[in-house]
Fold each of these.
Amino acid sequence: MWITPDRVFYHGLLGAPSVRSMGAVMVYVAVRGLIRIRMDGGDWQTTELAVVPPYLPHQVWAEARCISVLQIEAESVSLSALPAWLQTCGALHDPERLQGLRHQQQALSQLSRSVALSSLDFDATLLGVNLAPRPMDARIAAVLARIKQDPAANAMAQDLAAMANLSFSRFLHLFKQEVGVPLRSFRSWKRARNVLHHVARQNTNLLDIALDAGYPDSTHFSHSIRQIYGLKPSDMFAGSRRLRVHAQADAVL
């Protein structure tokens, strides 16, 4: 798994096809065979390539036990300016793009772990295109940067509003308008995303990991992880024991 503040590339076990809801544009690529995907309780679709918009509940099943996934953080790109194929919702039949993604992902997975991720252009490497950044009110952008820098922090929403020099109600309204989801949903996603940093830890005491990741207790940790990743934390960590994690050294996840 390769991780930067705004992108994740994962190649590994998929896990159970439970409902998940991620705060990123999700690109699922079948390693071999087929995948099945269901969007927000709809009909199952069979494909080799699928795209899911951010924060949309969905289920994925893979014929092979492994899958390749690219995550593009929703707040980092202009969703309306994405290439047409990345605005798909569900199965995508595009053999040429599928072949290209598989080739590019294979090339990335074979890169030396000594490569500095800060110098690696994920979009150019995996997508062959530079994605347009999301226009953002400067006050909200500053709050986003603070949350992303330390997702485990428990800063009060009122403090974030004061940081933006906005009234509490105006801050919450502007945040949702700019980011597309409420503050609570965004923080929940970033905290869960930050857990990826811990999956390769030798010490898998879940309470310690929960506290390190900013959760008040193991109950909140388990509920949030299951809601976002569709997996119990114990299953998530058990399936990641052999996973190699290559994270950008100069950025907090």
Amino acid sequence: MARLPTSGSSSTTPCREESDLRRVLSEPCPKTTFNNAFVHEYYLTLASLIGDWLSEQARLETSPVKNALLTTAKNLSAASALLSGLETGVRSNIEKAVTSRVQNLMALNPTIGSLESARERLCSFKRDADGISHACLIAAFDLPSGPDKRGRKTKDWYHFFTALLLSIAEKASIKPTLYKDREAGLEPLKGWLLDAARELETFLPRQMRSPSDVARYKRLERSKANLAKAGRQNSPSR
């Protein structure tokens, strides 16, 4: 289902306090003390990630928007036709009766004051209604119509989350490992990235958190590959 594009950027408060972040960072980075500026920067990054994720979730599907625009166009066009009963050309008895009665009642309004002024108001409304109706039609058919790969887009934020973890590892001079220990039995998934992600995800809404270590590992693995590919594409050509 196609959806309207997001506009602008937003942020919201993470699920834990900023003061908690310093303590949480000490788990994967026990030998590093992060100053207030770095902790605040990381906290704002988490807030921005949550805001972007919420914006993506709130995107409207185009179908109801298109239907509303088409209905508005139809209603405005119908109103314009009904209020054209006093114009030249072939007019139905209903159009003549509706326009005449509306014009007479408008003329009784002290702010309008006469049949001539009422007629001018009706003509002005008709022109505006026709123009807005046409604009609604264009807007309706200008909406995205192709299928939206929304499932993939909702996971794109994890690339930025992984980039945050990598920046923390770099600051702490830690190798951001992620690997499978084939001899570890029931818990073969290992690495600093996995441990750090598990800790930092506690600042995210539950809907954003990985449901399991397996899912978390796959997200990290995919995001690392994506970031590496982006780095190669952005590096100067030899």
Amino acid sequence: MIRKSAGRRLARLGGARLDGSERTKPRDPRHLFAVAAGLGVIGFVGRWWAVPLGIAAGLGVERFLRRQEPAAVRNSRLQAAADLPLCADLLASALKAGAPVDRAAFAVAGALNGPLGERLERTARSLRLGGEPAEAWGYLSDVAGGARLVSAAVRSSASGGALAGALTRLADDLRADRSAAAEAAARRAGVFIVLPLGLCFLPAFVLAGLVPVLVAVLGDVL
């Protein structure tokens, strides 16, 4: 049993299977889309000189897809930003209850879980090991709005001010910013919904209203 478990661990570390065959890595879908785009261009044109065009189209699609943010990274970023106001509230509550900063960060990290909880756990570990506040709280700086939390925490550690009150105000500000952003997005959505309707009705208005008038005027003039 010990040998089998050790073999499985070594297989996982080495990326090889127990039967001796190497584990194949999943193919990158971006390459498949690029090849499909290149072949599609070549097949649509149907000429030998379309081969360079197909290669250029494939390279362009691959470069475009490479610049796009992966869905997993985007979801992690959005979830961390969504949990930040709650994180600030929980940290403020733990500090008001008398918990040290590192213990409060550990407790909130365990309650949040997710991408923000992982970052906050690193912060708590760094604080417990005696790391500098700017370095410890820097794990939250890449979260949308996290730089303000980092600034408040570093400023509080340097001046001795109450961090709980600053975190409470920060949570309120973050929620207000989110409400304003949601309202602006709703207004933009209304414009985007009306725009296709306008594009559909405009040709009909031109054909039904303006064209007969122009034809009649030109007929009288000519």
